[in-house]
Amino acid sequence: MQSHNVDPVEVGKFEKLASTWWDPEGHSKPLHQLNPLRCSYIERHSDGLFGKPVLDVGCGGGLLTEAMARCGAKARGLDMGEEPVEVARLHALESQLDIDYQLCTAEAHASNHQNHYDVVTCMEMLEHVPDPQSVINACAQMVKPGGQLFLSTINKTPLAYLTTIVGAEQIVKVLPKGTHDYDKFLRPSQLIRWCEQAGLRVQHADGVLYNPLTETFRLSKRMDINYMIHAVKPND
Q1: 223: annotated binding-site residue?
Q2: At the top level of its lineage, which domain of life is listed (predicted)?
């Protein structure tokens, strides 16, 4: 199994969270709150997920993977955390959903799944790997011509640092301290350039803002904290 693009420290962070992954009031609460927005974003820009082969890279405990499966997608999830993958498999079984979860990197999976998926997602994962460009390249290889790639991560700005590290980890403590590393945050221009270098065409780039009063996320033109990118693989 190819594992050069894996940081054991980062994997370990999420191994510790595995037991509470599906607790909507636990440490994964922000992901539970974000999930409806990102799933609807993916479904809207991919013209529906029903019947489509979909790959969720860095699936963790399977929140987004399950949501896409419930939309009718033929869903598969990849992650390098053994505990999160086991949690994902168990929850899918309890939910009576047919989802294929694999302990595997995007690069290794891409070696025998070229042009295979209608939709590939990689959400809240790129800031946790040593070489995010390598992941994007692998995702681009796995998307069919005419297919879609969806990415999301955290912008490298002072406001993002204050919000995600100082606010979420140190003050409110909704996330464990050390979950994020500011040096690994990524600017939208970086992701867009890497997508283009991988032969993709970026269609949308949208900011994601959190309302603490309603505990909900919404799309925004502001991309200085969280953001999502939608790219297409040309047919030509």
Answers
A1: no
A2: Bacteria
